[in-house]
Design brief:
Blueprint lengths: L26 E5 L4 H11 L3 E6 L21 H4 L5 E5 L5 H12 L3 E4 L5 H4 L4 H7 L4 E6 L14 H7 L20 H24 L3 E6 H8 L2 H7 L18 E5 L5 E5 L5 H9 L13 H6 L1 H12 L4 H11 L3 E3 L3 H5 L2 H5 L3 E6 L3 E6 L22 H9 L3 H16 L2
Helix pairs in contact: 1-7, 7-8, 10-13
Length: about 425
């Protein structure tokens, strides 16, 4: 029976007509810095929100002044990686007149995101209770290390601290080695993603009910939630997982193996159908008749023997040989890439993940764009802002200030900052 075409959908094989990005028209006041908060607001910018980032005078947020990468002196690469498509407004939140402007901006925003230490926003007159009195429909997100209440509320939180306290380090590293942190700020990014998801739900509720919402999100809670089924081992079975390096506790073989040319390959027999495929790829079909390896449970029991056999065989040929054979048999595997190799992967290029933006002072900069594809609804991607580059434009657009008033404010603010 022929498939009927839904007139509300684009015909097959035709590009959909362009539509506004999902969050077009949503105004976000961004009071965040470092990684977790900026990652959350950048995600919203990628969805089309207008994100106005408030920065301190002189230096801006902390990432503008971190030690530059080797050979990149004078460039703010770390900041640029987390702040594309935003607008920068410089305000001294400790100065009464400028703090009042921030409150006016909050009164016109749909969403405010802050990641100050708990209690700081309230001391600045920008806490949830103060701001929602000005803007009852506002969604307000506080993103912190441990949350706004509780015994750990005031603890300092860094990505590595959360990796330690949330249990991530306890299962990372070799069995005979020390707990090891993951080599990327994964806790910051996971918390930022959960914050973006939570505020999207709150924005939908505010649109439906006409009332704002407060979102209290902690990095600790976000990372524990992200551990997913691995936490079930402790929650349901009462067991504490141990470190087992690159192995998998319930699947064998599953490990990193060194090929004859020194390149490493990750190979995992995910289900029983992959074991014969691996044996064929390795030219060792006689292993299928070995009762020690006849099923996942026996292979888990004989993990050392399986790994030794697979490792010895992989070491006999260069990685390129195994890549061809493993692909042909559809065995789950991957070469262990460094960052440069990961970015050069043909699939990354095919999906257009790496974008080049024209930055006003750094020239052409490469950034990792949003990982989703939404044909016809892509938000235009803009370079990261210069410090305070949009202050006047935002005051005019959001607050309706005339050019004369903007000029006077900028001159007065500059004079105030020169005072001893």
């Amino acid at each position: 029976m022929p498939r009927r075409h839904d007139p509300g959908r684009a015909p097959p094989h035709e590009e959909p007509a362009p539509r506004p990005a999902p969050l077009a028209g949503v105004r976000v006041l961004d009071l965040t810095q470092v990684v977790a908060g900026p990652f959350a607001t950048m995600t919203l910018a990628d969805l089309g929100a207008e994100v106005v980032k408030i920065e301190r005078p002189g230096t801006g947020e902390d990432l503008r002044t971190v030690t530059p990468y080797e050979g990149r002196e004078g460039h703010q690469d770390y900041f640029n990686s987390l702040n594309r498509s935003k607008k920068s407004v410089v305000l001294d939140l400790k100065a009464g007149p400028e703090r009042a402007i921030a409150r006016e901006l909050a009164a016109r925003a749909h969403l405010l995101v802050e990641n100050f230490a708990p209690g700081t926003a309230e001391r600045l007159g920008l806490g949830w209770e103060e701001v929602r009195a000005l803007n009852p429909r506002l969604v307000y997100c506080s993103l912190s290390g441990f949350g706004q209440t509780g015994p750990s509320r005031d603890r300092l939180a860094l990505d590595s601290v959360i990796q330690a306290v949330a249990g991530v380090m306890s299962v990372t590293g070799r069995a005979d080695g020390e707990p090891t942190k993951i080599g990327a700020p994964i806790c910051d990014v996971v918390a930022g993603l959960f914050a973006a998801v939570a505020v999207l739900g709150a924005l939908r509720a505010a649109e439906r009910d006409g009332r704002g919402q407060y979102v209290d999100l902690s990095m600790q809670a976000a990372v524990i939630a992200a551990l997913g089924p691995r936490m079930a081992e402790t929650l349901q079975a009462g067991l504490v997982p141990a470190r087992i390096g690159n192995e998998n506790p319930i699947r064998v073989p599953s490990n990193v193996y060194r090929a004859g040319d020194g390149r490493y390959l990750l190979i995992q027999v995910q289900s029983e159908r992959h074991w014969p495929a691996l044996c064929r790829a390795l030219g060792r079909e006689e292993w299928l008749a070995d009762p020690r390896f006849a099923g996942m449970t026996p292979r888990v029991r004989n993990r050392a023997e399986v790994d030794a056999l697979v490792g010895a065989r992989i070491a006999e040929e260069p990685a390129a040989v195994w890549i061809v054979r493993l692909k042909a048999e559809r065995v789950p595997f991957a070469p262990v890439n460094d960052y440069a190799e990961a970015l050069a992967d043909p699939q990354v290029a095919h999906r257009g993940l790496v974008r080049t933006l024209a930055h006003p002072t750094s020239g052409a900069i490469r950034v990792v764009g949003a990982p989703w594809l939404t044909p016809g609804m892509e938000a235009p991607m803009r370079p990261p802002p210069l410090l305070g580059g949009e202050t006047g434009a935002v005051l005019g657009d959001w607050l309706g200030w005339e050019d004369r008033r903007i000029d006077r404010f900028l001159k007065d603010a500059a004079a105030r900052r020169r005072e001893p």
